[in-house]
Amino acid sequence: MVNRIATGINGFDELIEGGLPQGSLTLVSGNPGTGKSIFCMQAAYNVAAKGKLALYVSFEQTEKILEEQLTQFGLDIKKLNGKLKLLFLDPNDPDVMSTIQKEAKKINSEFIVVDSLASLTSGPSNQSANFTAQQIMDSVIPVPIDSENLARMKVKLILDTIRNTKATAMLTSEIIHGQDGYSRDTLSEFLCDAIIVLHSVEGEEGFRTLTIPKIRLTKQKSGIYSFEMTKKGIIVKSSE
Ligand SMILES: Nc1ncnc2c1ncn2[C@@H]1O[C@H](COP(=O)(O)OP(=O)(O)O)[C@@H](O)[C@H]1O
Ligand SMILES: [Mg+2]
C-alpha distances in angstroms, 199 versus 29, 30, 33, 234? Predict the structure, then answer.
């Protein structure tokens, strides 16, 4: 039987047999402003509230802003007694991957969020190779190494790193307008075990939907589900 980690997001877990398979990697994709960060943060908070150690790495929001965001949804990080660690990192720091690995190990995280893969692969550091020769040789991706391949290698490296921690993880990504797929790097959707896509319908204030195009080891309820962002956070409607 597959062990599952409930996200605690109202209405969501019942779409996926009760939760994300333990140790799986989930890509949370969508356009900007669709609620990806809030979705992941709420899941991390809920997991920590159940007593598991969670790490939320953001390349976009400082710890202070993240805390404020939690407060807006009535979530007080102080109540978690340190079970949820918020970490704001510079995606262009060449040591960023090892920092995440160390932090995950240090607190023995069972749940990890990386927000976002896109900022990790589209920053200026992507123009220069900050990989060791060994890492390049170990990569399944063939040379030549242009910035696109470099971005893919970086994604593979970070997903491998996170998978090796055995934590259940959520990684946010972006849908690129006019391009197929669920990420800027075009690879993470294949390397992840699950994909959740959030949409907000243009011109319809507050109308948001969620789909689950892929989830391994799980009999999911397929369909398009609407969700709301309320004062208590995200609520997914169980009917389509
Ligand atoms: N306190 C709040 N109450 C309701 N909706 C909010 C609140 N804060 C942010 N939002 C909505 O969430 C969106 C941002 O969510 P976020 O998770 O940061 O998006 P993403 O990470 O996909 O860019 C905003 O565009 C806004 O519509
Ligand atoms: Mg975000």
Answer: 9, 6, 9, 13
Residues with a CB atom less than 6 Å from ligand 1: 30, 32-38, 72, 229
**CA 27 to centroid of ligand 2, rounded, Å:** 13
Give, to the nearest 10 degrees, the angle between helix 147-165 and helix 96-106.
10
Q: What is the pLDDT of residue 67?
A: 98
Looking at 3.30.70.100, 3.20.20.70, 3.40.50.300, 3.90.79.10, the CATH number of the domain 4-236 comes to: 3.40.50.300
d(CA 199, CA 59): 22
According to the model, what pLDDT value does residue 128 have?
Answer: 43
Structure confidence at residue 139 (pLDDT): 66
Residues 98-119 pLDDT 10s:
899 899 888 888 999 999 999 8
- How many angstroms separate the CA atoms of 77 and 119, rounded? 25
Three-state secondary structure call for residue 198: strand
pLDDT at 146 over 80: no
Atom of ligand 1 nearest to the CA of 60: 21
Residues that place a CB less than 5 A from ion ligand 2 = 37
